[in-house]
Design a protein that fits this description.
The protein is α/β, with parallel strands linked by helices. The chain contains 8 helices and 18 strands. The longest helix is centred in the C-terminal third of the chain and has 22 residues. Keywords: Allosteric enzyme, Cytoplasm, NAD, Oxidoreductase, Phosphoprotein.
């Protein structure tokens, strides 16, 4: 991990987004609404699509914080970026797992990463393309950049889904729930119930009228809904895009504003909880340099075992792809 981290880039930041599909457009829209950057650049090989998205976004800039929108099918549009969000890749189809996308999207990652770094040598690269843990590992391997400047969106959205469902069950605001999903952003992920709280109360002690709200059955149901929700959304409307756009914008702000916010992003693991040489999500300090220190939060024995299994799943996929 690098010892020196870059400073915040408030007010002058350029964010580039690779891929102008439904996810890339949602990321751009969320960043525009939130005033995340003063320049947003879209890069996509589909020239007509990227021009249409630039026009659509630009026509709304009267109603948002000041921001310049640009785009092109030439990667040079991303030059001098402070942060690049990569959403490009094959689209997950109904019934298809994220890991099924691995080979195609790793090839895209291996092609685009060196080109992006050539245009913006000091940029932070944030991968959103699925399977995000595998493509993040591929980007680190092809570039040799292993100091946290390349990382993935990981389980930030999954954790948001978990917190939403806990808040619904507890009848409190989502801001007053705290819980993490860790491991793979996918079917082998796990919820850290041992550290989950509602208003500071451990989740297994949270009661209403003397009744424990989150018993084992309820927790299992919530976790199942977290894991399967993306599949349900894809089945219903073809893609998940709005929530990932918002969660990605939140990660981008943590970098550009050097917030040192703890988020479960996917980064190259170097020994926390015994996990090494694989990219997966654990609570991590995110600052101006990208993914910084991984926090060694207490885990139960079952959670440690689940994390090891998730790491093994990802490691096997990495090996099958020569990573």
């Amino acid at each position: 991990m690098a010892t020196a981290r870059s400073g915040p880039r408030i007010g002058t930041a350029k964010v580039s987004i690779v891929g102008a599909g439904s996810v890339g457009a949602a990321v751009a829209y969320a960043c525009l609404l939130r005033g995340t950057a003063n320049t947003i650049a879209l890069f996509d090989t589909n020239a007509a699509r990227v021009r249409a998205e630039v026009l659509d976004l630009s026509h709304g800039t009267q109603f948002t914080p000041a921001c310049r929108i640009e785009g092109s099918d030439d990667v040079a549009v991303t030059a001098k970026s402070d942060l690049v969000v990569i959403t490009a890749g094959a689209k997950q189809q109904p019934g298809q797992s994220r890991l099924d996308l691995a080979a195609a999207n790793v090839a895209i990652t291996q092609s685009v990463t060196p080109r992006l770094l050539a245009e913006s040598p000091d940029a932070v690269l944030l991968f959103v393309s699925n399977p995000v843990d595998i493509v993040t590992a591929a980007a680190i391997a092809i570039s040799g950049v292993d100091d946290g400047r390349i990382f993935g969106s990981g389980t930030v959205l999954d954790s948001g889904r978990l917190r939403y469902l806990i808040a619904e069950g507890a009848g409190v605001a989502i801001e007053n729930t705290h819980a993490f999903i860790v491991g793979e952003h996918g079917d082998s992920e796990l919820a850290l119930w041992s550290g989950a709280t509602v208003g500071g109360i451990p989740i297994d002690s949270y009661t209403v009228d003397g009744r424990v709200v989150f018993d084992d059955r309820t927790r299992a149901k919530i976790f199942h809904e977290v894991v399967r929700s993306a599949y349900e959304i894809i089945q219903g409307k073809g893609a998940t895009n709005l929530a990932i756009g918002l969660s990605t914008a939140r990660i981008v702000e943590a970098v550009l504003r050097d917030q040192r916010r703890v988020l479960p992003v996917s980064s190259l693991q170097t020994g926390t909880h015994g996990v090494r040489d694989v990219c997966l999500s654990l609570p991590t300090i995110v600052d101006a340099g990208g993914a910084d220190r991984v926090l060694e939060v207490p885990l139960s024995d079952d959670e440690l075992a689940g994390l090891a299994e998730s790491a093994a799943t990802l490691r096997n996929v990495q090996k099958s792809l020569g990573l």
